[in-house]
Design a protein that fits this description.
Layout: H1 7-20, E1 25-27, E2 34-36, H2 37-53, H3 60-69, H4 72-75, H5 80-87, H6 89-98, H7 107-118, H8 123-136, H9 146-163, H10 168-181
Antiparallel strand pairs: 1-2
Helix pairs in contact: 1-3, 2-3, 2-8, 3-6, 3-8, 5-6, 6-7, 7-9, 8-9, 8-10, 9-10
């Protein structure tokens, strides 16, 4: 049995994410291919919904809303105050933890900081971060070199190492994706 979620809350989050990410694209596996960013948001949401199937005790509203909104503060003009006003403090805190800090210059330090903040959140937020990386471990963009692919895979392992205890189901899927990502190394 799936945990129930507030469909109105989910639709409001989806509408905000749709407006906020309007026009954003990311590179596909083939040169010249660009994919609407909302595809990524939907894929993360689907991963989280699958995870919820295995976690009927989970707070579905928190998990799904954070999945939909996880990149809004980092990649759009939306700020945490707007999220707190529109969706409440728990969702705003979850998204804040999932957002890398602009106060840190080093990419690795940003990830460690975010992971530490995520670990202070409910496990649903941990699952969102793992779901985000599961989705991102699809075929790398055509313009990534081998060093970038190696570094991205290592960062995925770091995420796994820090967050795997949140969900056996999600962490097993992440581990399998990390292993399969090695196929992109030439």
């Amino acid at each position: 049995m799936l945990p129930a979620w507030d469909i109105d809350l989910v639709r409001r989050a989806w509408e905000l994410a749709t407006r906020a990410h309007d026009g954003q694209k990311y590179g596909g596996q083939e040169q010249g291919r660009h994919i609407e960013y909302l595809n990524h948001i939907g894929a993360v949401c689907l991963e989280v919904m699958q995870a919820l199937h295995h976690h009927p005790e989970a707070h579905a509203d928190l998990a799904i809303a954070c999945a939909i909104l996880h990149d809004t503060v980092e990649d759009t003009p939306v700020d945490l105050q707007q999220l707190e006003t529109d969706f409440g403090p728990a969702i705003a805190r979850g998204v804040a933890a999932l957002t890398k800090s602009d106060d840190l210059a080093d990419k690795h330090d940003k990830m460690i900081d975010s992971l530490q903040r995520i670990k202070n959140q409910p496990r649903e937020v941990w699952m969102v971060k793992m779901a985000d990386r599961i989705v991102n471990l699809s075929a790398p963009p055509y313009y990534w070199d081998q060093q970038k692919i190696i570094a991205y895979r290592a960062e995925a392992q770091l995420i796994y190492d820090h967050l795997h205890s949140a969900s056996v189901t999600v962490s097993e899927r992440l581990r399998a994706k990390i292993e399969a990502y090695g196929d992109y190394l030439r």
